[in-house]
Each structure stands twice: as structure tokens, then as C-alpha cells.
Amino acid sequence: MSARLTSPILRRGLLALATSLALAPMAFAQSPIVIKFSHVVAVDTPKGKAAEFFAKRAAELTKGRVKVEVYPNSQLYKDKEEMEALQLGSVQMLAPSLSKFAPLGVKEFEVFDLPFIFDDYTALHKVTQGPVGQGLLKKLESRGITGLAFWDNGFKVMSANKPLKSVADYKGLKMRIQSSKVLDAEMRALGALPQVLAFSETYQALQTGVVDGTENPPSNLYTQKMHEVQTNVSVTNHGYLGYAVVVNKKFWDGLPADIRTALNKAMVESTKVANDVAFQDNKDALDKVKASGKTAIYTPSMAERFLLKKALVPVHKQMASRIGDETLQAIYKETNFDPSKL
Ligand code: LMR
After folding, report:
1. Are 152 and 273 in contact (CB under 8 A)?
2. Measured between alpha carbons, how far is 63 from 98 in angstroms, rounded to an integer?
3. 181 domain-assigned
4. From the CA of 56, how far away is ligand 1's center (Å)?
5. Which atom from ligand 1 is nearest to the alpha carbon of 95?
6. Does residue 152 lie in a domain region?
7. Number of folded domains that form the chain
8. For residue 185, what pLDDT is reported?
9. How many alpha carbons lie under 13 Å from residue 312 in its C-beta half-sphere?
10. What's the pLDDT tens digit per position in 131-175?
11. Residue 3 located in a structural domain
């Protein structure tokens, strides 16, 4: 026995076992909670940058007990699949655009797609940072999703391979839209032919002529290089594109309370970063598109924008029953929007 114990192989084995037993509780305590955060845009976008910031602050505020892994650029999932993955728990966190929630049955979210509903960021933030926004996030609970925050992207521009000045210029154009019935109605009101495509398929569809044009905030247009396959951009600011940051409810409810508190704090900070970055990046992106020399940028005159508004505001009434009149009226009240006054 003692001869065997003195065997160097056995001694090494026992030593390794003792070390691993001693370290086991530590290793267990140290293995972090992993949050997979999937999104469809580039890293260098408002959402991409805010997601990275959240990952950093989540690690700091939880002292390494949470590790957020960010998967950008539809690397893991495209638009529709990522929603399914969240509900199944294959990823824990997403920030889909608000236009992408109606297919879950939460049609109220399409209110954000209504053309000209927000005059500016002040009007918008009254909704996204106030009780109406909170009420909308609550509606996700029945779908197994907890809404944590709204993050801005920005106001949208239109693009195509021809100048888009008057309403008549949109007639017959095949326009890529997100999966929203309000956006469908918006394009039809202009005489265009809307086509729903995943974000990750948009560049190629524009390049190959599957669609003629699209709408997006400048930051998305530029970071997806859409301007390289679109000769004309019109700065219409006719609608808004923003995000709801959401988590799988079961996962979220199962987290220790102190972790949830720390993550909520990280989220509040990240929302500020997201909104500040979005404001700046959209301005910079337009400048960069201009500097590329590949695309002509047109800013409609007040009269042209008024005619565009006149053509598009009837979409509110048309979509009111789908969105829910209660939600629509609540937003009108917050933003002082009066559709009868044009
Ligand atoms: C789009 O599909 O155009 C956008 O929702 C992409 C995004 O997430 O900003």
C-alpha cells in the first residue's frame, strides 16, 4: 500500500484530484450566467453599439456574474427566426424594431409605424419613456416576453434609383418594407408595391432589382451599404424606426433579484447611450452617404413634405381598428397630434 502511494503516478493523480475538489466550488461559483443577445444590424450602428455597451456594463455591475454575448448582423438568426428563438429560449435577449412585434399578435406596436405620427424626438420620447410606452411593453408578457426598454434608431429616409420628390414618383416602385401591415398601407398609399423582406436580404434584393427601393434611418442605409445600390435618397423623415429591448420572461423571472436590479441599471444607462448615439449616427451617416458621391441626397421642400404628409396621414384612420383606437388616442394625446389638422 505504502509502496503504491509512493508511486509518482498515483501521487500526481491524488494531487490533481485534491486540487480539483478544492477548486470545484469556486469554479461553480464563477461560471457566469450567459445572456445571448442577438440582433440583425451591423456592430457600428446605434443598436450594435448600445448592445456592446450593455454587455460591458452588465459584466461590471454584476461583477462578472453575467456574461452578455452579442451576436450582430443576423449572425445567429434573421428577423422572424430571432423572435421564435427568444420565445423558445435559444437566445435570451433581442432588440427587434417595433415593426416586428405584430406577427406575435401584439398589433398595437404598429402604431409606431404610422407615418408622421411623431413630429420630433420630444414627442416620441413622451411615448417611449412614459406610461403609454410602459403599457405597450406590458402587452408582451402574454407572449412569454418581458420588455425592458425602448431604444431609438431614428426617422426614416426613402431611397430608390430615381429622384423621389413628389408623391407621384413612388408610383409602381417595388419597395422593401419590414413585416408591418401599417408599412404595407403606407407604401400602397403612395402607389408603391410593398414587399416584406428580412433586413439581411435587403441589400441583395436592391442590388439585383428584386425591389427598387426601401425606407430606413440613414444609419441602417449606410452601414448596410444600401447607398451603393441606390442612386437617390430623399430625406423625408416620414416615419420612425426604433426598438424594444426584450428578454425571455421565464429566464428573466428566474434570475436572482440582485442580478435583475443590476441588469436594469445597466439597461437604463444603455438606453441613454443608444439614444445619444442614434441621434448623432444618423446625422453622420447622411454626411457619409453624401461624401461617398454614390447617391444624390434630396431634402423635400416644405410644400413637397406637406403633400407627402397629406397622402400618408389617411393611413392612421385606415389602420386604427387594427392597432386599437385606445392605443392610437393615447399616443395622439401624448404628442398633441390632431389628424384633422393638416
Ligand atoms: C429593418 O428590418 O429594416 C430594421 O428593423 C433593421 C433594424 O433592426 O434596425
Report:
1. no
2. 32
3. yes
4. 23
5. 8
6. yes
7. 1
8. 98
9. 26
10. 999 999 999 999 999 999 999 999 999 999 999 999 999 999 999
11. no
